[in-house]
Write a structure and sequence with these properties.
Elements: H1 8-26, H2 33-40, H3 45-51, H4 54-78, H5 83-100, H6 104-113, H7 124-143, H8 152-168, H9 170-180, H10 189-204
Length: 225
């Protein structure tokens, strides 16, 4: 294997990209430094140089994923809009994270299942940010008489857990449809986002109504961030 000569920034980026792919497929324990270096086409010594080793590289990857998510949710938190629109934007934020980092759900699910044993305490506040944004939306909706009171922790587990599971299992779903011939109708990401939009707004509504004229991609503009 020919090792590419890169500038420090591109070397770091190549290592993060390779690590993301391998950690998503094999998990932390199943991924070796040699495999990361080979896929990134750099000398494995660069992992220690840039990240202090495999654990440091994994931590940097988790931090990148969570920082991206926290930044998108911060825009939702600060958005002065009705709670229904903010809920739609909260759900849509997860879709945008997957667009940028397609393997983020697999990595996060693996880490959660492991008990978070590789999560550095410094990035734990980003997990809390997800909860506090959703909690704020629920509280606003209840305060304004638009949402019925619900347990915010259970709501987050149901909503965020379902979104992460959906995006993490795309390959498996396609295999089931292809090999077993399950007729599940349209199951693309936009359909699923709309499904959860309607589920959340319908389930939370004080007076349930049919249909919600809120566009799925509603959210704070760049100017609102």
């Amino acid at each position: 294997m020919a090792v590419r000569q890169r500038d420090p920034k591109s070397t770091r980026s190549a290592l993060l990209d390779a690590a993301a792919d391998l950690f998503a497929k094999r998990g932390f324990d199943g991924t070796t430094i040699d495999a990361i270096a080979k896929q990134a086409r750099v000398n494995k010594a660069m992992i220690s140089y840039h990240f202090g080793g495999k654990r440091g590289l994994y931590g940097a990857l988790l931090s990148e994923i969570l920082t991206n998510m926290a930044a998108r949710l911060e825009a939702v938190r600060a958005w002065d809009a009705p709670p229904e629109q903010r809920m739609v934007a909260f759900i849509a934020a997860f879709r945008e994270v997957v667009r940028v980092q397609p393997v983020a759900p697999q990595i996060m699910l693996r880490e959660v299942i492991s008990g978070g044993r590789h999560v550095d305490r410094k990035i734990l506040p980003n997990f809390l940010a997800i909860f506090t944004v959703l909690q704020g939306i629920l509280e606003q909706g209840t305060r304004e008489g638009k949402f019925r009171p619900v347990n915010p922790v259970l709501t987050q587990i149901g909503l965020v857990g379902s979104l992460m599971f959906f995006f993490a299992t795309e390959t498996f779903r396609k295999r089931i449809v292809r090999e077993i011939g399950v007729d599940a109708g349209s199951m693309d990401a936009e359909d699923y986002i709309r499904h959860w939009r309607d589920m959340m707004l319908g389930g939370l509504a004080v007076r349930p109504v049919a249909g919600f004229p809120v566009p799925v991609d509603s959210g704070p503009s760049q100017g609102d961030e």
